[in-house]
Amino acid sequence: MDPRHSAQDVLRCTLCKTELALMHCNICHTHLCKDCVVIHFSDKSQAHNVVPIEQFLSTLSYPKCPNHPTKQCELHCKQCDVPFCTSCISSGQHLGHKAIDIFEDFDAKKEVLKKDLQEIENSILTKYEEASSHIQIQKADQRKNSQKLTAELKKHGEALHKEIDIIIQNKQAEIDVMDSKHKAALDKQEDAINNTIIEMKQVIQDLKSLLDTRNVILVSKYQSRIEEFRKMPNKLKISLPTFQPVKVNREQIMKQFGSISSLSIETEEQGYTVPSLGAKSSPSDRPLLDVPQLITELSTSYNYLCGVSCLSDEEIWTRGADKNLKLYNLKGELVKSVQTKSGNKPEDIAVTRSGGLVYTDYSDSSINLVSGTQIQTLITLQGWKPFGVCSTLSGDLLISMDSDDNKQSKVVRYSGSTEKQSILWDDKGKPIYTSGKIKYLSENRNLDICVADCRAGAVVVVSAAGKLRFRYTGPPSTPRKSFDPVGITTDSQANILTSDYYNHSIHIIDQDGHFLRYIHNCGLQHPWGLCVDSRDNLFVAEYIAHKVKKIQYYQ
Q1: How far apart are CA 305 and CA 296, in angstroms?
Q2: What pLDDT is recorded for position 4?
Q3: Separation between Cα atoms, residue 450 and residue 458, nearest integer Å
């Protein structure tokens, strides 16, 4: 809600300071009560534009220029990052600077606010809270180690005569001093993290208020702290003390009693461990190759190869039309083979951020996690059948699914086994996805959810909030009916790649749905599943040839 509409922020007349403002002068930026309108018009030194206060509150207004009070700021200086009026231009104050419309800057700042709020809430705050929780673990270890040291010290002291009690007391004092330093260091680190968390939560509230406000000045004054928050606090590197007892020798008690290693507390730079969720890449960051290059290809033992997912730059998980999940290295050697829990074929696979493998089982409506040799069923759906699976930047799972009667289709976000979001309808109440055919999906770098809707012949992209952004049905020169998207993935430049099965090609489009180019060389035949590694090399699963091809498409 705009704070100017709230009951706790009643607008008073600027002139009399007491009566409620019923009108507003857009020229003088003055609130006026009924009686003061006449007084205001009596000033003939300048023109006036008085409108009802409701009209003023419902529209954005130009701010008053601080240097020329009779002027409105209609422009914003990119270099100085301040609003200014036309008189400021003639004064030469912003000579040679780039100027944009002030409402364009307002909208741009709003976008920054939204992205900062999203990144803090969805990523950075979580990391700080994890760091705070880790301090509690360190404190528990500190207490256990201190207790262990004290117990060993007392046990060794019992083997000695009473005359060494003073030595025990001295050694205990050493432990207490180090224990105090240890705890003090942890307390300091915890306080710093918790203080930042408090600040971050306050910033969240401030950002929400700014997103709701229509006050151009407040928004234009906003200074982002996102880079400050991205830099995680230094991590304590602690070498815990130990006690080394020696054999009792009465003549050398003082020398042979033993010693306690020194407490070591160091800070370890974590760097920018939290990636920018809303980061947009410039198309010029990494130019696309005019002719993509086939780097290598490897054969698999499937009759039909359906999917591929990178475990690392050297190993890839694959799935086919049978019950086995197979891990290959880039030499084509089988590293591991795992049979699905139900004995059914997997519908889709995805490697999680922690290195586990998630697969969907259409036949028994389950989503399962492979960890080592163990398989855990994470979710069992009721009334729905799962298709595609994607592991997101935040660690959530995105699952595309159809209803059992094949009349509805949706994408659901899960945190663990808890449903957090369901994407089914657009703003007009119409289905976003078609039902009755496979739908693989991928999360883009800007958090968009990209679905290859095969039956619709379209790549359907929605925002993280589930709002439809666009449908890509092939470049303008390609008839829609000939586009058959199956596999889909996204790369570090926020480009979207989808396999066009019957046309034996890969389409590359940007994050806004604009066609960039094809990959239709490299001998591609019936491409199905796709993934990219950390260097943006593309892996393509060829359905009938049951081969995986690694392709370089960036310079």
Answers
A1: 17
A2: 36
A3: 10
CA 462 – CA 446 distance, rounded (Å): 11
Give me the helices (H) in 213-330, please. Answer: 216-220, 226-230, 253-256
Structure-derived torsion over alpha carbons of residues 259, 260, 266, 270, reported in degrees to the nearest 10: 120
Quick one: pLDDT at residue 399?
97
Domain ranges of the chain: 1-59, 104-268, 288-554
3-state secondary structure of 4: helix
Closest C-alpha to 442, from 480, 402, 376, 487:
487
pLDDT of residue 249: 62
CATH for 288-554?
2.120.10.30
**What CA–CA distance (Å, rounded) separates 8 from 447?**
37
With contact defined as beta carbons under 8 Å apart, do 277 and 184 qualify?
no
Q: How far is CA 129 from CA 142, 188, 203, in A?
A: 20, 16, 16
Q: What is the 3-class SS of 68-87, one letter each residue? A: CCCCECCEEECCCCEEECHH
Task: Look at residue 105 in the predicted model and tell me its pLDDT.
Answer: 77
> With a cut of 70, which residues of the chain have pLDDT below it?
1-9, 58-61, 159-163, 246-258, 264, 266-285, 477-481
Convert the pLDDT of each residue in 139-169 to its tens digit.
887 888 888 888 888 887 776 666 677 777 8
Contact between 31 and 51 (Cβ < 8 Å): no
With the CA atoms of 93, 95, 96 and 102 taken in that order, what torsion angle do they form, in degrees rounded to the nearest 10? 60
- Rg from Cα positions in the chain: 32
Residues 6+ apart with CB under 8 A from 340: 323, 324, 325, 346, 359, 361, 368, 375
